[in-house]
Amino acid sequence: MAALPASKPGSTLVTHLNSAMPEDILLSEIRSSLQDGKAVVVCAVWWICMIWSYMPKNIIVLMWKAQLRFCLIHQGAVVTPPHHDSEGPNTFVIGKIGLKIWVLLRHVNGDNLEELAQNAVSLCSNHDMTKFEAETVTIAPGDMLIQLPGMFHMVYTPIPSLTLGGHFFLWDALHETLVSRALDHLNSMLFTNQEHEHTDETLWQMATMLPRLPQEEIAFTLTHL
Asked: Which of 32, 150, 214, 219 is the most buried (most CB within 10 A)?
């Protein structure tokens, strides 16, 4: 893990933002990055627990059920092996105490589901990362990381740490959700760490909302599915 490149501004897997940006611009940049298939890191986000409540209407309508759902408490020197989060949501984590080193992984040929599934078996069982691009992100207190649906990752916790997190769905990223759920169907017990209840109901509700979205957003969403 120590040999992997650290993510930095301008990297191929992650967009780096700062909470000092105007809120509407920050949220727009987050959405744009997720549309483009990149994870997002926002530094010094002390107000993040309330971010979803303050989203401008034109942004919040495009995300669904974003809320804090889990708390990770680890001792130091803990490694969480490669996996992806089940059911296909975006995942966000917020550093509260200590540090975490997040390794983000993207398959070199993500458009080929069969090849991705085969290489993911090697990744999750033998930790073979040769078919994946990788970058590391250090999450300090106040930092937030937003992952793409189905993005494989592993985590190293060097010191005792507490991290908050949760999930949300994004219409613009449903094509990534589809791939993630297909991988779950192929080999869910190997690729992921847990199942999330009510995901199907959430996606059904998102489908019923499509007629209420702005027409330009519907067109964009359909071109990515």
From this structure: 150
> Is the backbone of residue 65 left (phi > 0), alpha (psi -120 to 50) or beta?
left
The total of other beta-carbon atoms located within 10 Å of residue 93's CB is 21
**Looking at the chain, which runs of residues are DSSP E strands?**
14-18, 39-43, 63-74, 78-83, 90-97, 100-107, 132-139, 144-147, 152-157, 161-170
Pairing between strand 90-97 and 39-43?
Answer: unpaired
pTM, two decimals, is 0.79
How far, in Å, CA of 224 to CA of 171, rounded? Answer: 9
CB atoms within 10 A of CB 97: 12
pLDDT in tens, the chain (225 residues): 768 889 999 999 999 998 888 878 888 888 889 888 999 999 876 544 444 444 434 434 444 455 667 888 888 998 888 888 888 888 989 899 999 999 999 999 877 888 988 898 888 888 889 999 999 999 999 899 999 998 999 999 999 999 988 888 887 788 888 888 888 877 755 656 555 556 666 666 667 777 776 666 555 555 545
Query: Do residues 180 and 83 lie in contact, with contact meaning Cβ atoms separated by under 8 Å?
Result: no
Candidates 91, 87, 99; CA nearest to 196 is 87
Q: Cα–Cα–Cα angle for 8, 10, 11, nearest 5°?
A: 65
- Amino acid identity at 187: N
Cα 109 from Cα 124, distance rounded (Å): 17
Cα–Cα dist 225/210, whole Å: 13
